Amino acid sequence: MTSRHDEGSSAIAAEAARLVVETGLEYGPAKQKAARHLGIRRGEMPANEDVEDEVREYLALFCGDTQPQELAALREVALAWMTRLAEFRPYLAGAVWRGTATRRSAVHLDLYCDDPKSAPIALLNMGVDHEVDSMPGARDEELTVLTLATASRALGESVTVHLFVRDHDDLRGALKPDRQGRSWRGDLAGLRRLVEAAQDTP
């Protein structure tokens, strides 16, 4: 028998998935907004994996003719920036790595640095306009987030790229898989394999 909690969690996951695809919201804010929209104030939120499952279903139903090309364009943007920032051990995370991105998605790159100040300095030396922000990290430390806009010729518009400056020691924990054994992020070689595999798919 399905409990009210399960029904509420499933409804939030489905509505959050719609918001993620249609508006580009991240999973956390999308779940919160979905719960408010549905009037669900109690109970646990669905796991990100549950929302992602719903996102995949939504994409298959409504975006099957456009999403693969948009994902490919965003992965090309990620490849370019990962190559450019290779000295900072970049790993691609989020929807672009997991394969659920659309043109509304941002590119999320984790930079695992020996010196957290080195990445912002590198962008300055490159002459790259960017914004600097911060967010709580996994160990309650302040995490520097560098945000820039970069042109995508394939999409015909600018793409937002978020660079999360992390400590090199955080890398081992970051490579833990999800409950289905899939990786949450991948390095430059891993992304190249995904791009090549997609190109070989008819």
Task: Walk me through this protein's architecture.
The protein has 202 residues and is α+β, with helices and mostly antiparallel strands. The chain has two domains: 4-62, no CATH class; 67-200, 2-Layer Sandwich (Beta Polymerase, domain 2). The protein is 48% helix and 20% strand. The protein has a six-stranded mixed sheet. The longest helix has 20 residues, at 4-23. The chain is globular and about 50 Å long. 29% of the residues are buried. The model has no long low-confidence stretch (mean pLDDT 92).
List the main descriptive attributes of the protein structure presented here.
six-stranded mixed beta sheet, alpha+beta, single chain, 202 residues, Beta Polymerase, domain 2
Short characterization:
This protein is α+β, with helices and mostly antiparallel strands and 202 residues long. The protein has helices spanning 4-23, 27-38, 48-62, 67-84, 94-98, 118-126, 171-174, 188-200; strands at 90-93, 107-113, 131-136, 142-152, 157-167, 185-186. The protein has 2 domains: 4-62, no CATH class; 67-200, Beta Polymerase, domain 2.
Number of strands: 6
**Overall CATH class of the largest domain:** Alpha Beta
Strand arrangement, major sheet: 3-4-5-2-1-6
Number of helices: 8
Mean pLDDT comes to 92
The percent range for strand residues is 15-25%
**Main β sheet profile:** 6 strands, mixed
Distance, first to last CA: 42 Å
Q: What is the alpha-carbon Rg in Å?
A: 18 Å
Number of domains: 2
SSE diagram, text form:
Layout: H1 4-23, H2 27-38, H3 48-62, H4 67-84, E1 90-93, H5 94-98, E2 107-113, H6 118-126, E3 131-136, E4 142-152, E5 157-167, H7 171-174, E6 185-186, H8 188-200
